[in-house]
Amino acid sequence: MPLFPPDNDTAMYFSMDDPNQLVSRLANFPFLLDDEVWQSVEHYYQANKFIKPNYQTKIRLAVTSERARKLGQTWLQRKRPDFKQVRATLMTRAVYTQCRTHAELAERLLATGEQDLVESSQYDYFWGCGRDRRGHNQFGQVLMNVRAKLNSERSEAV
């Protein structure tokens, strides 16, 4: 077995942290989910790490997605015990809802066709592909699952 997986020439590599790429979790495209308005996927994801509603609100009201991320990285607040089990579901719900709210995001995602979508973080082995491309690429999986759902809904509407 080779040390590195073979290159996937058909894959689209992107960074989920770049607000100008594809469907970024940092991009400011507000959406309504769980009876609250969220400025970005990052706001929703970070707030849902925590148990205390007042801390969730603080994150939801953060001025930027970068500030929401910073607030979400604290060790001073108690996190929900099931967070690792539900984090991909939370991300999927937020990305899907944001795409349903903003047609231009859905179109960007649908325009990728059947390409594999790979989050190119070299340090994140859960959300990204990691330095050696052996990561789980969960954010890429989230995007491909949302794309499949949007395609399915589009087909049913015809």
Keywords:
two-stranded antiparallel ribbon, 158 residues, 6 helices, Tetracycline Repressor, domain 2, mainly alpha, single chain, globular
Instruction: Return residue spans where pLDDT drops below 50 for at least 5 consecutive residues.
Output: none
Q: Summarize the amount of helix as a percent range.
A: 40-55%
The SSE order reads: EEEHHHHHEH
What's the name of the CATH homologous superfamily? Answer: YbiA-like
Number of helical regions: 6
Q: Domains counted in the coordinates: how many?
A: 1
Mean pLDDT across the residues is: 91
Q: What is the fold-level CATH name, i.e. the topology?
A: Tetracycline Repressor, domain 2
Can you identify the CATH class?
Mainly Alpha
First CA to last CA: what distance? 46 Å
Strand order of the largest sheet: 1-4
* DSSP E strands, number: 4
Q: Which value, in Å, is the CA radius of gyration?
A: 16 Å
Shape: globular
Strand content: 5-15%
